[in-house]
Structures are given as structure tokens and as C-alpha cells.
Design brief:
- There is one protein chain.
- The chain has about 170 residues and is an alpha+beta fold.
- About 20% of the residues lie in helices and about 35% in strands.
- The protein has two helices and eight strands.
- The chain has helices at about 5-25, 160-165; strands at about 35-45, 50-60, 60-65, 75-80, 85-95, 100-110, 120-125, 130-135.
- The chain has a four-stranded mixed beta sheet with strand order 4-1-7-8, with no helix packed on it.
């Protein structure tokens, strides 16, 4: 038989193969991507005066030095809609100026529930915990769900070692 006979058959087989391949790939299609929003990032250092957060990051985005929340950087991506399993990877370095010690830490931290995505605040607390809060407004605003940025007279402070504790795997 001539090549002119096999050409249409080959073309038909190729067409059938392409249709089957597209159907099979549709079966394994990934779910639609979650809608995310870029939000500003700031860190709030609640540690004792001789301790400071020299550098921190959230999901690899550097927030630089944590302080009293006056500076912020762009941008960390958060889902437009909060979900119960929402976490971020927080990395930070603590300098103890009294003992001249520098330590690095890492933790997976849940993001507090939000109704509307907003600026991302990372609170580094004296007991060694880290709170991550997305909020439209500033920590001084009424309704802010996180810790106050101001220290109150008579507030007790956990031991320095707790703030330096590293529970990264």
C-alpha cells in the first residue's frame, strides 16, 4: 500500500490520541488557586528592654527589625478568606544585649481569624510565643484582637530564657 493511504490513518490516530490525552489531563487538573491578597507586614517587639528582634520574616518575606509597629514592608500574601488551618512560617533573631547573645528561631504559627484581610502584625511576646494577626487598622484601634503595644505598669514578665527559647524542629 502507498504512503498516501497511511497518511490519513496516522492523522486520525494522532487526533484521537490528542483528544484522549486532554480528557485524561482534565481528570487530574489541580483545584482552582486560592485568591490571595498582598498585605503590608510589621513586627511588634514585646520583649524586655535588653532583648530585641533584629530581623524577622514571614513566609520568606523580610520584615526587618521588629519594634513598636511604626514601620512596615510590602508584601506578604494572605488568602482573601480566612480558613481554620491557615498558618505562616515565622523566622526571627533575638539579640540579648546584656549577655551579648544572638539566637535564631523558627516556628509555624496559626494566623488569628479575620473577617477581612488587612495588614499583618507579628507580635513577639515575652513568654516566647508569637501571635500573627491580620487587621484593617492599627493595634491602637478599638477592636484590635491582639495584645496592646503599650506596656502597663505592674505587668509581670516571664524569664528571659522563655523569650530566647527555640522550638523549631
Amino acid at each position: 500500500m502507498s504512503d498516501s493511504f497511511f497518511f490519513p490513518v496516522r492523522l486520525l490516530c494522532l487526533g484521537v490520541a490528542l483528544v484522549l490525552a486532554s480528557w485524561l489531563s482534565a481528570c487530574h487538573a489541580s483545584p482552582p488557586a486560592e485568591k490571595t491578597v498582598g498585605v503590608m507586614l510589621t513586627g511588634l517587639d514585646h520583649l524586655e528592654a535588653h532583648l530585641s528582634i533584629q530581623e524577622f520574616s514571614v513566609n520568606g518575606v523580610s520584615g526587618h527589625q521588629a519594634g513598636r509597629g511604626g514601620s512596615s514592608v510590602c508584601c506578604v500574601r494572605l488568602p482573601a478568606v480566612w480558613r481554620p488551618d491557615l498558618t505562616v512560617k515565622v523566622q526571627w533573631a533575638v539579640t540579648d544585649w546584656k549577655r551579648k547573645v544572638y539566637s535564631e528561631h523558627e516556628r509555624i504559627v496559626p494566623v488569628e481569624r479575620y473577617d477581612q484581610v488587612g495588614m499583618l502584625y507579628v507580635h513577639f511576646l515575652r513568654d516566647g510565643t508569637v501571635k500573627v494577626i491580620s487587621f484593617n487598622g492599627y493595634p491602637e484601634k478599638e477592636g484590635y484582637p491582639g495584645p496592646s503595644i503599650d506596656l502597663r505598669p505592674g505587668e509581670t514578665f516571664p524569664k528571659v530564657e522563655n523569650a530566647m527559647k527555640n522550638d523549631a524542629p
